[in-house]
Each structure stands twice: as structure tokens, then as C-alpha cells.
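Let us practice reading a record.
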Amino acid sequence: MAFILLVLVYIVLGFMYAWITGVVAREEISVGTGVLVLVISGILSIAAGVGLGAAGLEGITLQLAGTAVSLGSLTLMGKAIAKLEWKHAFIIACVYSVLLFILGLALASCAA
């Protein structure tokens, strides 16, 4: 059940990525491409988060470092997989990084 929910969340986020790409870059990408960009970027971000946590970062410092890693990985995956221009990939990554940062803070405040 949790796996199905995770897949549905990624499909929605992939749709949002494809929609923002259409608005910002005026290029059409498929939802599948958006999901692939987000999944690979998420794997890279989780791996980097584990590394940052092992390096001794914690609290808001870890959250801000994770946001920077998310921004970088989304930009690189947007360029590599979705074949976007660097400027458009960076703008889209900024929008997603802000959304993910706000979501992370909201979830952290609910857990506390």
C-alpha cells in the first residue's frame, strides 16, 4: 500500500515538473520523463543527505545543505534527462527546491 502511494506521489510530482517545464521553458516533456528526473534526483539527494548526516551536520544546517544538493541534482538531471537549457533547468530546479524545502519544514514541524 505504501509503495502504491509513493508511486502516485511521484506521478503527481512528475506531472508538476512537466507542467512547470512547459511554463518556464515552453517545452513539452512527458510525465514519465518528469518522474524519471525526480526519482534519480531523489536518489542522489538521499545519498548525499546520508553523507552529510554522517559528516556531522544536523538540524537546519542539514536541511539547508540538503536543499542545495536537491537544487544541484535537479538542475543536472533536468539538463541530462529532459534536455533542457541550463537556465531553464536551473529555474525549474529553484521552484522545486523551494517547494521541497517548504514541504520538509512543514513535515518537520508536524513531527515535532
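A brief commentary: Residues 86-111 form the longest helix (26 residues).
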